[in-house]
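[Amino acid chain]
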Amino acid sequence: MSGVFVYWDNSNIFHEAQRIAEERDGTPGARYLVRIHFENLLRLAHADRPLTKAWAAGSIPPELNQLWNRLENQGVAVELFDRGARERGEQDIPDRWLQLRMLEDGWDYNGRPGTVALLTGDGAGYVEGRGFHRTLERMHRRGWRVEVLSWTHSCRRGMRLWAEENGVFVPLDDYYNAITFREPSRPGHEFAPRRDETELDLSTRPMT
């Protein structure tokens, strides 16, 4: 086997984390303070197994540059897209870029497949024969083991059920406090108190 291959749809993971933050903190303002703890989420994906490749699609706001650089320093290849380019589709192009990386790896490592750890809940396009779910099926037929990591409420039901039957579904909700943290509010705008990430416990993480 060729180790773990991580494919990370950051927009999907982050925007749905904002919804979770509102629900857990009980205030709409919490969505503007929650952040993803990149290091812990990456570790949750590979679960201390050998990491062969990791790809992440994200956005280009300058305030995130330092975070993207930290991720790249851990061996993740990051491709950034302009979320303001509405005419190109805000999420369609990053999704297709990630799916292309998955198909390329599936071809390049044919005969020695590894484990796919996909971080997204986006299962759109399945009926049309495209999208993350279809790409996972193609890789699975070639012998790849499959793990989907997503927020339960936002994962496309068909993809989640398929992952549970053919691989592993990892609900990010169970690791919320370890893979997110909350920035302090600006003075005079106290939505919620600062919260640091907790230690990541992998003992309950399901594995293929």
Observations:
- The longest strand covers residues 51-59.
- Residues 5 and 105 are 9 Å apart (CA to CA).
